[in-house]
Amino acid sequence: MSLSHNAALSLPPPFHLVTLREAGDAYAHAQSIAAADGAGTLVWARRFHMTEFAVVLEPEEPLASARRVVYAAGNALADALAIHAPPQQPIGFDWPGGLRVDGALVGGLRLAWPTGAAEDAVPDWLVLGCSVRMIVMRAGEPGFRPLLGGLDEQGFEELDPAALIEGFSRYFLREINEWNAEGFGAVQTRWLQRGEDDVVALPDDKLLAEALRVPAWLDPATGAPWL
């Protein structure tokens, strides 16, 4: 696998890019370099049919509450998609990390933390992983899988992985800056406005930790969103 630091994406500070070839695992690689490369490292596996990237974070609060960054990331991802979406196209979430467009599961977010990290201590790092299916390949007709799909089936033909990652990076910084300045409330409100299944409140931090250990949106056999 070849790795390179380059300017293939236009990312705001403090992000710095590591790219992998198509077969690379961005989520696993980000975890392997998190301690050495530090906060802002964005690992991108360059696939044309899937947006697959992971970001190294260094939180300033205990692990139990720091995991809520997945909600900030969800807001950022939804906003990055919304600017490219067809008019009135609904974008929402399955708690805590599944991403839906017009009801179809197209991707999701996951989170890793150091093995053995204490819930009440600040972890050395977190790794936020994101997968969004851009193009459905080798699958049956959408009518046979109405709740599973890709962005190409939802009218996002002009969106490519680079543009989605660039948009995410900027909206994610907005979310984190607002969280730091004003508290988590605004982040929570925006997420709940897009939450599926009539979610009116976020579950407690313990339930979030359990849900993130085995993401419901992820097919373990393929390492991609269910299809």
Q: What does it look like?
A:
It comes from Aurantimonas endophytica. The protein is α+β, with helices and mostly antiparallel strands and 227 residues long. The protein has six helices and ten strands. A hairpin with a 4-residue loop joins strand 9 (218-219) and strand 10. It is globular. The chain has helices spanning 26-37, 63-66, 69-82, 161-182, 185-194, 205-213; strands at residues 3-4, 16-20, 41-46, 50-57, 91-94, 98-101, 104-112, 126-133, 218-219, 224-225. It is 31% helix and 22% strand. It has an eight-stranded mixed beta sheet, sandwiched between helices. A two-stranded antiparallel sheet has the order 9-10. The chain has a single domain (14-211), classed as BirA Bifunctional Protein, domain 2 (2-Layer Sandwich).
